[in-house]
Design goal:
alpha/beta; 6-stranded parallel sheet; 13 strands
Length: 444
């Protein structure tokens, strides 16, 4: 490797450690908590919620949470809204595109006050709902529907949750991106209620026909956009210590200024000996085919959301691999039946070991037993039902089964026809937020 490439890798590693260091993140959180003491009103609340998001350990976030609770006692909906507008990127997204996407109705409202259910994937869609409708309109919605947020990232946006909890009379439900955030979410606000399962656990196994291990032609598959946070550089460095004959396939798409050419240049700069098969912007069907043909499916991020690609890979029968210590939801699914973690500094060694033992794993069966869209819905329905029976004593209809591919869709389209009038009614009442084609265009 050339000297310039070695220096570049060293700088990447230093930047990486600074960015993801728990000590530094917590230190910044505590500095923001101190700064908040010298501010007032919405700005203080915005700073505190940002500080809260930086601290993963309970001992670090508890004092910040206490400050938020003390301020929340006097904060009204206007204060929370101003805090959201102060620091969050979400209002800009809503302004650019106010109409909901990736949002699906799981249940129609019934008689005697029985509520329907709306599942909004990702924070920007919850923001579209609570910023796009006024209080009376939101009251109309929450009188008739339970609202569920499937979080896209860890940490989620706590200023958004604070505003949503303050303006939605009955609050909201959340499926967190990682299990590690559950305790913090549960402590944040009594009107923010956690659901079982993870936001990534909506995959339908019927789309996957896994090949036998010895029939798979891809040794390592990495499905990750070209963004810097996906950390291709460390994977490429590991590949320099692995056999050149390995078949390695990368699937991604443009992220920010990073393109396919960015990844090609990086691989060449580091000196990857394998002939990489790099593909961009594939259809979900093409991705599924690759997953069913891969022995190992891996990601190398240190922090993101649930990472649906890893859950899909389980159903495809891959051995999955992630960096040890990664804050990723689907990391919870790595066990002796599904894959292994990759130790920093020993990634090449650990990947080769996984290639040797992968045939002994049974990831597809484990996934079908534990994290399918069917299992996820059962858990959510039990929570919604228990809450409904406690509050109103009415729960006569279950939820309609959805899955994610690669956006929310109904698993049994014939069941969805009963919801068409509900979609149409919401569009007629709130056309700016509920588009006319929401039932068919959630992939936007």
């Amino acid at each position: 490797m050339k000297v310039t490439a070695s220096i570049d890798l060293l700088l990447r590693r230093v930047e990486d450690e600074l960015r993801y260091s728990e000590v530094i993140r917590e230190g910044l959180g505590q500095c923001l908590r101190l700064l908040a003491r010298f501010t007032q009103g919405p700005k203080r609340l915005a700073i505190l919620t940002r500080a809260l998001s930086l601290c993963d350990r309970e001992s670090a976030w508890k004092p910040i949470m206490k400050d938020i609770h003390q301020m929340a006692e006097k904060a009204n909906t206007g204060t929370w809204k101003a805090a959201l507008l102060e620091r969050s990127r979400l209002p800009g997204i809503v302004k650019q595109q106010p109409a909901l996407t990736r949002t699906i109705i799981l249940k129609a409202p019934g008689a005697a006050g029985e509520k329907g259910v709306i599942l909004a994937y990702f924070e920007y869609n919850l923001a579209r709902l609570v910023l796009g409708l006024n209080e009376s309109e939101l009251k109309w919605i929450t009188d008739r529907f339970e609202i569920i947020l499937a979080a896209s990232w860890t940490p989620t946006d706590y200023s958004l949750l604070g505003f949503a909890a303050s303006i939605l009379p009955d609050g909201l439900w959340i499926q967190p991106a990682t299990h590690g955030e559950r305790t913090r979410l549960a402590a944040f606000h009594p009107k923010v209620r956690c659901l079982p399962g993870l936001a990534c656990d909506w995959i339908n196994p019927t789309f996957y026909q896994p090949k036998q291990w010895d029939e798979r032609s891809i040794d390592i598959l990495m499905i990750a956009n070209w963004g810097a946070f996906k950390r291709h550089w460390e994977f490429f460095q590991a590949l320099t210590q692995m056999p050149a004959k390995l078949r390695v396939v990368l699937v991604g798409q443009k992220e920010g200024t990073n393109t396919l050419e960015t990844i090609q240049r990086l691989a060449k700069q580091i000196g990857v000996p394998q002939t990489l098969d790099i593909r961009e912007s594939l259809s979900i069907e093409e991705v599924t085919h690759l997953q069913c043909d891969a022995k190992i499916s891996m990601v190398n991020s240190r922090r993101e959301g649930g990472c649906v690609a890893m859950v899909e890979s389980l159903f495809a029968g891959c051995a999955i691999a992630m960096r040890e210590g990664a804050s990723i939801g689907s990391a919870a699914h790595i066990n002796e039946r599904t894959g292994s973690f990759l130790r920093p500094g020993y990634m090449a060694e650990d990947l080769m070991k996984l290639l040797k033992k992968g045939q002994q794993l049974n990831s597809a069966k484990w996934a079908a037993e534990n994290v399918s869209c069917f299992t996820t819905l059962l858990g959510i329905e039990k929570s919604i039902q228990a809450n409904a029976l406690l509050k109103s004593g009415v729960f006569t209809q279950g939820l309609i089964q959805p899955h994610w591919r690669p956006y929310p869709a109904f698993s049994y389209p014939n069941q969805a026809t009963q919801l068409w009038p509900i979609y149409d009614d919401l569009h007629q009442r709130f056309p700016k937020v509920f588009p006319a084609n929401l039932i068919s265009s959630s992939s936007a």
